[in-house]
Amino acid sequence: MAKSLVIVESPAKAKTIEKILGKDFQVKASTGHVRDLPKKGLGVEVRKNFSPKYEVLPEKTNVVEELKEAARSAVSVFLAPDPDREGEAIAWHLAQILEGEAKSLQRIEFNEITKDAILNAIKSPREIDQNRVDAQQARRVLDRLVGYKISPLLWYKVRRGLSAGRVQSVAVRLICDREEEVLAFVPKEYWSISASLQKATAKTAFSTEVAQLNGKKIDIGNQAAAEKAVDSLQDAAFSVKKVTPKEQKRQPSPPYITSTLQQEGSRRYGFSVKRTMALAQQLYEGIELGTEGPVGLITYMRTDSVRVAQEAQDEARGFVTERYGKDYIPAQKRTYPTKKGAQDAHEAIRPSSVVRTPESMKPFLTPDQNKLYRLIWERFLASQMANAVIKVISVEIDAKHEDFSALLRAADSKVVFPGFQAVYTEVTDEEEVEKKSKLPELTAGEALKLKEVLPKQHFTQAPPRFTEASLVKTLEEKGIGRPSTYAPTISTIIDRGYVEREAKTLKPTELGLQVNEQLVQHFPTIVDIGFTADLENKLDAVEAGEQEWQKLIAAFYKPFQETLKIAAKEMKPVAIPSGENCETCGQPLLIKTGRFGEFLACSGYPECKTTKPLIKKLGVTCRAPECTGDIIIKRSRTGKTFYACSRYPECTFTSWDPPTEQVCPKCSSFMVQKRATKTGRTFLLCSNVECKNILNVKAAKKEEEAEGVEK
């Protein structure tokens, strides 16, 4: 019996949907894009109205043939890639390839992979949204023009293997600009003064902060001034000036969108943006829930809309009423304003059903999946709950002595009604404020005793380097890129060597600073934040049908081409200093790139032709017997990374996997680091193939088969 064919992007999603739809449907995966611009050459016919020259990706030839064969025998074909621009473009490319092969081609989309959502989508197919496709085409062509036109200049003027990008180059600029602020910052000394005070009859003290001295805001810049203020406070009389009780209502935050989820994953658990998105993808595509089968636990994770479906609101309100009581739901359903320019095609990120609590899902999820699911579940449920009510007591205290006066302040808060905080509380990038002691009952005019005065020296702090979370927040606030671009952008600038992670922060490398300097000087428009944000708005206009995509490209390309011509003439070769000096002549050694990767060469060339390998240490001692050399990172003639001892040829130790300092508890062999490509999880594997402990090769192979391991 002939079946209907559903084509999705990922095999995991295909597996989930096939179990939902049953025997009358066949579900296959395109495994992402099947057509794209060619890998070699520009692939855009500039003189023919910027017409893109698409071709089937070489690695997808078999997939395409398989889809064609399935389409020929299908009753109808439903194209079901993700519900965004990229997904719409994939559906369009599939339609182009399958035209003439299938009896019927229809587009369907769903925001969550649940039975109701899938069946409703099948009942309501639609035509492909050409405006959305054109917006993606415009973005792809723009990125290709920028990348293929600027990158060769960087190869020639800086070093091989570099690239520029419409969004990535702006991200690098933000990080470089922040680094300049950090390096230029001059700390300024200042002092704060706190005082421990007691009620006349009390045994315990409470803490206060000096806010004013002699009627002016406290501004103490050195130790002498601080000591003078302390001496005056020692002799002062203290009394309560004013006690102000106040009730504050705190509203919950809206449900997560892509950027806020990425930020929270980083802040709470130290997840990279890439890791957060990988986990969210797994939760969206489907998790096996025992007898219930595979279920998508969250809605689509690439969104910048905070809109929530009415059915989801109703379910949340019912759940809150049952678990916490009627007082915990607001009188009216909560809605949140979506920021200007956001794509409102689908909802905020939420659980597909709040009935599936984090506790009930825990047995089916990995620890990291459960962490992220809990965040999404709690944030969504809280977003539909009542305000928290906080009682805040603020106290002002006078200190007087002869011609000296000071105003001290203290505050205390108490939760009167937890509201949404019974489920979820936010964390921020800022450091935790030092906890203050609880305030006793105080009344205006009441005299207080001084127990202790504590001066404290401070220095103003440089602006912090970006973390992945704060960079995503800044990109979003400035309108750079879209939710789907943040994770690949950060991965790219790190992989290219423009930026490196230092602790949890992002720091530009010397290469990143040099490339950014060239782009700012010669391509100021490309790395201009306002220009890039305006281009994003124009892409949105294409999607809305308000702008023709080829006209948008033409308006961009003409001035860009003129800038390219000038840059090709004026950009001078850049040397990347290594920080080392030549052993032959003492001049600085420069980092250069050759056929087999990077090496060091004397800046005195051609007078001095000294060269030497560029040694990158892994930070691990060689594990060969009786060897104390360092493990260094090297590249083979084919460009593949491997690890070797720095004492070669005396020591011939090599490994394809990065060795670690950890020793196998059973056989004393060294452990190597592996990474599962599907989950991103890093694990250790004993290097001894005959070892039978918990991290033996057999167990690793099972994980490789299930998840795939980077070799």
Short characterization:
The chain is of the alpha+beta class and 711 residues long. Helix content is 35%, strand content 24%.
Radius of gyration: 31 Å
Number of domains: 5
Decide which structural class fits the backbone: alpha+beta
User: Do you know the CATH architecture of the largest domain?
Assistant: Orthogonal Bundle
Q: How does this structure look, described?
A:
This protein is an alpha+beta fold and 711 residues long. It has 5 domains: 4-128, 3-Layer(aba) Sandwich (Rossmann fold); 137-184 and 464-570, Topoisomerase I, domain 2; 189-251 and 388-459, Distorted Sandwich (Topoisomerase I, domain 3); 258-383, Topoisomerase I, domain 4 (Orthogonal Bundle), CATH 1.10.290.10; 576-614, no CATH class. It has 18 helices and 30 strands. It has a 6-stranded antiparallel β-barrel with strand order 9-10-16-15-12-17. Strands 2-1-7-8 form a 4-stranded parallel β-sheet, sandwiched between helices. Strand 21 (588-594) and strand 22 (597-602) form a beta hairpin. Helix 8 (258-269) runs antiparallel to helix 13 (468-477). It is globular, with a radius of gyration of 31 Å. The relative contact order is 0.11.
Provide the fold topology.
Blueprint: E1 4-8, H1 11-21, E2 25-29, E3 35-36, E4 44-45, E5 51-52, E6 55-56, H2 61-72, E7 77-79, H3 85-98, E8 105-107, H4 115-123, H5 130-157, H6 168-184, E9 189-199, E10 206-213, E11 216-217, H7 223-234, E12 237-250, H8 258-269, H9 273-285, E13 287-288, E14 294-295, H10 310-324, H11 358-361, H12 367-383, E15 388-401, E16 404-417, E17 447-459, H13 468-477, H14 483-495, E18 499-502, E19 505-508, H15 510-522, H16 529-543, H17 549-570, E20 576-581, E21 588-594, E22 597-602, E23 611-613, E24 616-621, E25 630-635, E26 641-645, E27 654-655, E28 659-663, E29 670-675, E30 682-686, H18 697-707
Helix pairs in contact: 3-5, 5-16, 5-17, 6-14, 6-15, 8-9, 8-12, 8-13, 9-12
